[in-house]
């Protein structure tokens, strides 16, 4: 009796339907179905489940690449012992995506080296897992890219694209003074995203010092910061720096360096 092998015909048909990923698990699932005496519908459900999982993983990897995180920082990697005053309950709530659904800003402040960028990227990583498109950038790089877009005549298109990003993370706000047209560009972007999309901002400046980030235009500073702080979730970090220098071992004493005399 000749056994019919459908694989030569099945493979090109699956590729035509853009279901070629099923081929990766088809043989093992077929063997599992035979050994377990599964119904046809159970066998089909397993194959479809594999294809859905494969596509979700592919989308996740793509969103992760587009986010352009500096490094892959997650909440699991964060050293909470260094920041004992951190509101962990609020952080876990944010990780679950509350601020995303509310289109609310998240403001993270604290001295250098306490983990602001880490937490911002970790929240971004959580958002990627939840299917949100994320863009991570420093404030300097952001304003430079907007200025370059103006020079090439695509400023409105660039602002529009950034306004539509599911989650925008702006790192190191206030690290360098904002002068025209950078201050205006940042204001335009924040105004476009206001109550329409969530934005995470980190800064070394205390909240009451944020207006100092704008070199000259205090009116523009007030309008921008007012939109950022409205309904925002705030995380204040205070602790030991991650960037503590390594301590060199103490030099040996002269007596320790002297050769020992063998006992007689």
Automatic annotation (TrEMBL):
InterPro entries: AAA+_ATPase (IPR003593), DNAC/IstB-like (IPR028350), IstB (IPR047661), IstB_ATP-bd (IPR002611), P-loop_NTPase (IPR027417)
Region (Disordered) residue spans: 245-264
Record field: compositional bias (Basic and acidic residues): 253-264
Entry keyword Cytoplasm: no
Keyword ATP-binding tagged: yes
CDD domains, per database record: AAA (cd00009)
Residues covered by the AAA+ ATPase domain: 102-235
Key words, A-Z: ATP-binding, Nucleotide-binding
GO biological process: DNA replication
Superkingdom assignment: Bacteria
Gene Ontology terms for molecular function: ATP binding
Residues in the signal sequence: none
NCBIfam families tied to this protein: IS21_help_AAA
Record-stated family: Belongs to the IS21/IS1162 putative ATP-binding protein family.
Record-given protein name: DNA replication protein DnaC
Organism, as annotated: Quisquiliibacterium transsilvanicum
The organism's taxonomic lineage, starting at the top: Bacteria, Pseudomonadati, Pseudomonadota, Betaproteobacteria, Burkholderiales
